[in-house]
Amino acid sequence: MTTAIHDFDDFFRKAEPRLRRAYGGRIAPHRVGDAVAAALEFAWKNWDRVAVMEYPVPYLFRVGLSKSRRRKQGRLPASPPADMAHVEPALISSMQQLPRRQREVVWLVEACEWTPTETAEALGLSLSAVRTHRDRGLERLRHHLGVNTNA
């Protein structure tokens, strides 16, 4: 029993900040804590299943979304979160202009540093769809921000 608790504690320390940041790009900021708590409560209650998953965090990401009482899609914050103070402020408004799937994929892959495979698992997309949404989203962001990559 001690081993399982230790393993869960280690998992919790790694998964909690990843989930919190990922939800920050998907739901309203005041609902993030509830989604994280719901996901990690599910992980604790189902640790025997979660512990052997290849991609448990993306799975729990979906669990937290589905267990959130209100499924309204939130907006990204008006300014970068404190741990992302180095982010160009215009990027946030440009992100809000992206179509939902592009915004979700760009957020998870670029801001949260999830792998394309984790992102595909979390959003229920194919790997090629994740790559397409990422590429198109980044191209739109470059256009909105006036970034020329041909230089």
From TrEMBL:
It holds the Pfam family Sigma70_r4_2. It comes from the Bacteria. The keyword Transcription applies. SUPFAM superfamilies: Sigma3 and sigma4 domains of RNA polymerase sigma factors. Residues 91-141 form the RNA polymerase sigma factor 70 region 4 type domain. The keyword Ion transport does not apply. One of its GO terms (molecular function) is sigma factor activity. One of its GO terms (biological process) is DNA-templated transcription initiation. CDD domains: Sigma70_r4 (cd06171). One of its GO terms (cellular component) is DNA-directed RNA polymerase complex. Keywords: DNA-binding, DNA-directed RNA polymerase, Sigma factor, Transcription, Transcription regulation. Belongs to the sigma-70 factor family. ECF subfamily. This is DNA-directed RNA polymerase specialized sigma24 family protein.
